[in-house]
Amino acid sequence: MIRSIAFIHTVALLVERFRPRFQAELPQQRCFHLLDESVLQDLLRDGPSPAITRRIVTLATLAADAGADLIVFTCSSTSPAIDAARPLVPVPIVKIDDAMYAEAARCDGRVGLLYTARSTLEPSRSLLAEHAAASGARVKAECVLVDGAFDELSAGRREIHDALVTESALALAARADRLVLAQASLAHLAAPLAEATGKPVFASPEWMVRDVVARVAAAA
User: Fold this and answer.
1) Does the predicted TM-score (pTM) go above 0.70?
2) Which residues of the chain fall below pLDDT 50?
3) Within 10 A of 55 (CB to CB), how many other CB atoms are there?
4) Burial class (CB in 10 A: 0-12, 13-18, 19+), 153
5) Alpha-carbon Rg of the chain, whole angstroms?
6) What distance in Å separates the CA atoms of residue 159 and residue 11, rounded to the nearest whole number?
7) Of 94, 15, 84, nearest to 56 (Cα)?
């Protein structure tokens, strides 16, 4: 049975995005949130390193020690370090992107992958390829960095961030069968982009929520 779920974040705004959602979705479960913004800051500045991996393992261990029966990482950039943490921590660990990429890679086609943080590129491209290989689908990915958008969002200029992402998405949609928003910070644009482009648009939070709720139900 899953009684307690730990959410580990590297972006502060995601704490308040997910806290009320899971209070509503899973009122019987104890959900708690750990935040370490320095992880993403260091990844953006220096790239992956053994030190980052140790910190991810430490965060997961802290969550397990606090009684978590399930751990959810909400940062796409930490994906490789999570792979290292999984065999070392005696609690199942969910990546926020796993369910989304499993669905996006379920059938053949061209996938346009949008991201705003440089540290997201390789983990996201690798995870998409991993799920495509598992499904047997022939997936061709085009990855586009929306340069400058992450800095605008970090500075509180969300309207500029959204305009930059939308412009890139509209251009990319002309070359893709479906779009993937590679970071949770982009998820609020999924519906308007789907309407504007006429293409399926995947965002990780909704798929992660479904995945976690299903896991809790299956373990009941």
Assistant:
1) yes
2) none
3) 18
4) buried
5) 17
6) 18
7) 84
Strand runs (DSSP E) across 74-165, as ranges? 93-95, 109-115, 139-145
Residue of 4, 2, 3 whose CA lies nearest to 63: 4
The sign one gets for the Cα dihedral 102, 26, 205, 75 is negative
The two structure tokens encoding residue 135: 């499904």
**pLDDT at 13 (0 to 100):** 87
Query: Which SS3 state, helix, strand or coil, does residue 146 take?
Result: coil
* Phi-psi map region of 183: left, alpha, beta (phi>0 left; psi -120 to 50 alpha): beta
CA distance 39 to 45: 10
Nearest-angstrom CA–CA distance, 206 and 102: 13
Which candidate, 105, 104, 47, places its Cα nearest to that of 78?
47
For residue 188, the model assigns a pLDDT of 94
55 is written with which tokens? 């910190």
pLDDT tens digits, residue range 150-172? Answer: 999 889 999 999 999 999 999 99
54 strand-pairing partners: none
Buried/exposed 186-201: b ≥16 CB within 10 Å, e otherwise: bbebbeebbeebebbb
Answer yes or no: are the C-beta atoms of 173 and 197 closer than 8 Å. Answer: yes
Beta strand 4-9 with 30-35 is parallel
Mean residue pLDDT across the chain: 95
Distance separating alpha carbons of residues 145 and 161, to the nearest angstrom: 12
- Bridge partners (DSSP) listed for residue 203: 181
Closest Cα to residue 129, out of 90, 102, 94? Answer: 102
